[in-house]
Amino acid sequence: MNKNKHLEQKLREKISRKADFDCSKVTVCVDDHNIARLTGMVESWQNVVDLGYLIAKEKKIKNVVNDVKARRAAVPAQDWESGRLQGEKIGVIACVDVVIVGGGVTGCGIARELARYDLNIALVEKEADVSEGSSKANNGMIHPGNAVMPFTLKAKMNLEGNKLYTNWADDLHFSFKRTGSLIISYSRNDLMSLLLAYIAGKINRVPGMQLLGGKSCMDKDPSIEKKPGLGLWTPTTAYVDGYEVCIALAENAAANGVRFFLDTTVCAIHMDQGRVTAVVTDQGIINCRLVINAAGVYADDVAQMADDRFFTIHPRKGSILILDKKTAGPQINVALSSRIKNKYSKGGGGLRTVSGNPLWGPSAREVPDKEDTSVISEDFDYAYQIGSSVFEHADRSDIISYFSGIRAPDYKEDFVIEESAVTDGLIHAAAIQSPGLAAAPAVARRVVSLTKSFYARTGRQLKLKDDFDPVREKPQRFAELSHAEQERLIKENPQYGNVICRCETITEGEIVAALHSPLPCRTVTGVKKRTRASAGRCQGGFCTPKIMEIMVRELQLDITDITYKGAGSNIILRKSRGDLEEKQQ
């Protein structure tokens, strides 16, 4: 007997009463764990998303599995089966205690914190490098906690994570600036949005938050030309480059024994009587006792592989513009409170990254494809509009690049960090969207606690390793050194005297060091993320060939083997001169 029959009826009535589109072909059922499962057909993808949120508003519902399809939007099918068959044919390639699925900041943070314990750990990432998803395609803001819904797990993790970032930065030596941020208002509508952010921040206990008068706002950042009516100052706001944090975590984890399986896609999870026994990848089988699901936009797919899909990730794309460092404007994050357009998104704004580049955006657009990182004109224009409202003297000629990232929200709009209720040996760290970067240290700690509890039930008390080294050596940044320090470094290693990237003043020595780091990079994008070579005004127009030559020499590769970001992105397809010589012979 279905104990949730009355709840199902209530949801059906809710759909028929509130949905402003045709839902006649939609069915809903609620299982014994209070998970609502939707199937059927509607007209558009936005209808699918709206329906999921409508059901998620019911407080008795734990989460929503939304399998409704849209007539005018096909969701790309994932081919897990061919990878599974390939992996099972290869057989066992490793035996470990824990497999972490996903190499974003969540997965790498968990790997680094779990590396403190006497565990054999593997991290599996489908891309050719870590930080190839939303961890690199975000604005790098370590949010203070006044833009998250109070009393949620997301709010708790945001506040804890923000505080813990100081320790991460001290140990891992990534760029970290706690500059604070301002939200300013010029109208009554602006003021209402600002006061709501203030109230949320007070409830969430954001430290040091203050309401400031217009003159005090201008004193905080003299680039503000027009006196605001009121401002909200949050001194705990900080900035990082998300990909740099992720790489630092991964390198420290690797130095402490974590094995990284890159270019490796998880395709299935083997279980025996409801217990995890192995992860099947397209590169082979990894035997394990515990799987930690940190797979970002694919977290619901991984959950499905372990018979525990109780949430749905609906991809939300955000487009971002990057401007030249020389662009005039604020040195801290100054945002107009009226910029917020989407109740499920912070709305974006204009800020200056830790590297000095103005960054405008992101936008927020629901899309059916988890791999759709295209930038459409509407999102470009949105990011430009909200950025230029803060950087008033900038124009389109200052833009040097633009890109999109895919967020991974579920319909409850909260983080899912918990042990599976139905599968033994599965921990979810899922639905991690903004402020996921800010929350990462706290999320990692929470997963460590869940892991310790899991092993305690099996009779194994995890012990800290005596030889764990929390410190990642600071990479040499030639451009940041004094002239005397630069001269000393060049005498020690002449490669630091050869500038490869003129825009960012990146040397051959820095690129070589990145290629031989604890987690070596094998792609041009990997070099860019680790050194900033090709991140400047010319976007690699001059330095990419030189970078490739260094990679060929250091990695003992053929020039045709060099890729931009992994399989299928080869920069040079063939040696045309050699082909011509062969034809002449």
Overview features:
585 residues, five-stranded antiparallel sheet, 4 domains, 16 helices, alpha/beta, Histidine-containing Protein, Chain: A, six-stranded mixed sheet, D-Amino Acid Oxidase, Chain A, domain 2, FAD/NAD(P)-binding domain, single chain, globular
Describe the structure.
With 585 residues, this protein is of the alpha/beta class. The protein has four domains: 5-70, Histidine-containing Protein, Chain: A (2-Layer Sandwich); 80-135 and 243-313 and 412-457, 3-Layer(bba) Sandwich (FAD/NAD(P)-binding domain), CATH 3.50.50.60; 176-234 and 315-407, 2-Layer Sandwich (D-Amino Acid Oxidase, Chain A, domain 2), CATH 3.30.9; 478-578. It has 16 helices and 27 strands. It has a six-stranded mixed β-sheet, with helices on both faces. A hairpin with a 4-residue loop joins strand 1 (26-30) and strand 2. The longest helix is centred in the last third of the chain and has 22 residues, at 436-457. It is globular and about 75 Å long. The chain starts with a helix and ends with a helix. The relative contact order is 0.13.
How would the blueprint of this fold be written?
Elements (H helix, E strand, L loop, with lengths): L4 H14 L7 E5 L4 E8 L2 H12 L6 E4 L2 E2 L9 H11 L1 E4 L2 E4 L3 H10 L6 E4 L16 E2 L10 H20 L8 E5 L2 H16 L6 E4 H7 L9 E5 L3 E2 L2 H14 L3 E3 L4 E7 L2 E7 L2 E4 L2 E4 L5 H7 L10 E8 L9 E4 L12 E4 L5 E4 L3 E2 L10 H12 L10 E9 L8 E4 L6 E5 L5 H22 L25 H10 L6 E3 L4 E2 H8 L8 H8 L12 H12 L20 H9 L1
Parallel strand pairs: 2-3, 2-4, 5-16, 6-7, 6-17, 7-13, 9-19, 17-25
Antiparallel strand pairs: 1-2, 8-12, 9-11, 10-11, 14-15, 15-16, 18-21, 18-22, 18-23, 20-21, 24-25, 26-27
Helix pairs in contact: 4-8, 4-11, 5-11, 13-15
